[in-house]
Here is the input.
Amino acid sequence: MGRKVMGDFGGIIHGGDYNPDQWLDRPEILAEDLQLMKKANVNCVSLGIFAWSHLEPEEGNYDFEWLEEIIQRLYEHGIYTILATPTGAMPQWLTNKYEEVLQVNEYGVRNYPGKRHNYCPSSPVMREKTRQLDMRLSERFGGHPGVIGWHISNEIGGNGGDGACHCAYCQNAFREWLKERYGSLDRLNAAWWTGFWSHTYTDWSQIRSASARGEDLVHGQKLDWKRFVDSRQLDFCKEEIKAVRSHSTLPVTTNMMEFFYTFDYFQWAKTLDIISWDSYPDWHSGTDELRTAATTAAAHSLMRSLKKQSFLLMESTPSVVNWRSINRLKRPGMHELSSLQAVACGSDSVQYFQWRKSRGSSEKYHGAVVDHRGGEDTRVFREVTRLGERLGKIATRVIGTINRPRIAMIFDWENWWALDDAYAVDNNLDYREVFVDFFYPLWALGIDVDMVDMEGALDAYSVVIAPLNYMYKKGYADKVRAFVRQGGCYITTCWSGEVDETDLTYTGAHPLEDVLGIRTEEIDAPGGYCENSVRYQGVDYRITGLCGLVHALGAKVLAEYQNDFYKGYPALTRNVYGNGEAYYIASLNEQSFLKAFYSEVLRERGLGCGLAVRLTEGVTVNERNSTSEEQDTAEKIWFLQNFNREPATVELLECYENVETGERLSGEIKLQAFECVVLGRADGRNEF
Ligand code: GAL
Here is the structure.
């Protein structure tokens, strides 16, 4: 096996959060853990995530003996460690002695000690205590052969918080950040449009964080505060990375939270070696699994796209979570399917929260590999074991491959923040949900999609889709223009190109008017109940959201509104520009519209699912391809996944090999409910 996933580790990682610090007084439990991990085909754990009070029981008094013993014993059993820095939760001695480490909320109230993910990222004490501990961890464990990487903190900014602290240190840091960004108050006032309501700033010291207690209606200010909160936490994370690197060259990750509103993960990705994330889909909560499956695939794809490399599924539950109002068990088969879905989308691991159920506190009923009773005689343990076996079988075919889509979707955090605060015709607009609406039909067709932010390169793609691209960052319109001129296909929607990156609306024409060949005018929000529809290729599609009222300048009108005063207005246009073309979808419509429209675009562009297959509803495919540039001779594998609660039949139009069994498959094949089959070419090119 060539490529390493992390440190010295070459296979697919299977394991998860291991919290032996909760069981240090129970040696028989720790001994059982090792035996059971071997049985369950666990090969890696994440250690020390919330262990600060065990690692530094008193200020300056460090105790790493217990951790060293555990890392060593795991290693002797062939189990590797991803070692965490424990800043996800702070010890009592720290929070009680130094209140500045605790966050201040937007009303100016400082938190009491407790909970987690709530340190002030500007506090000098917090930074210094963290640095001291992280450097010592690096020194002691950075060279241990069993340690393969660093896990910085835990779900930074997560668990209900927004990562923001409004204390005096943070207010000062915000002002410094603004000075750097704008250079002068005049520029800041212009960008924030502070003349409105007479709120012009005349001294930097007057500026405060955006908050409900004070100013939260100046859009530019709010947007900058969100940017600052993001960059402040990232800055803290960078300090942690510096500290763990003091004595170690191991790769660094932090566990992300999919489309997590507060942080622009494209920025974070630049400082991390490996992307990892925690996936907890709400399976079995609706009439079917399909929307959940598509949303999860979108999140995995986002994680893969952040660095355009394979990622790690750092946490998932082997059975159930306990923090929704209703928490359903993963039904038989779903654990394997959802785990393999992650691998299908680019993960090189399947890891769990957590290895063994805690006895007390708020997660005692959260699913774990080992139940309170202990032992291996549980459905969950058997399913985890079986999955571990399967991962072992496919590992050599998976490692070193990645999904290589020809279609990209623009997903941009700053766009999300600005759009959310637009105060316009539809204040319930949900960027993420609309984004998944546009992703879903491609997922259903078995077509992988990358996600790119507005700063990302577009040239690797044939088609770029930009739903609700409300804000245009500097240089974005020119990049799109060049992409289309050179032959790309650009698809965008209403509520695009409205504001610049300071959240000021454009004056004059839409920045891409020439490329789109339309003039935008008004926008309507028909509300929950809408009787309007658009007619496309002779079929009427129901409108489900925003309706942009536009006029064709040079673009061809492909669909029109059917009702209301804008009956006959263009609802879908196509404009040829340079060697490419640009589509404008004026309204948000029911899903079948996008399916029909995408099919047309895919046909024109010669794009499709890489597996020769006739899919049925609820069955999809992802393709992982060699990371080498020579794709034609490359090894490819396909993950055929049935998200239906019943068996489904699909037709393979060529002969493939079942990678796990070696069986040759062609023609009609039956997939059991929640089954995933991993396929390779049957012509021998995949053989090792
Ligand atoms: C994650 C967190 C874990 C655990 C888990 C429960 O968000 O990182 O520590 O709390 O949720 O689902």
Q: What stands out?
A: Residues 473 and 501 are 5 Å apart (CA to CA). The chain has a mean pLDDT of 96. Residues 154-155, 158, 278, 280, 315, 321, 353, 363, 366 surround beta-D-galactopyranose (CB under 6 Å). The two ends are 10 Å apart (CA to CA).
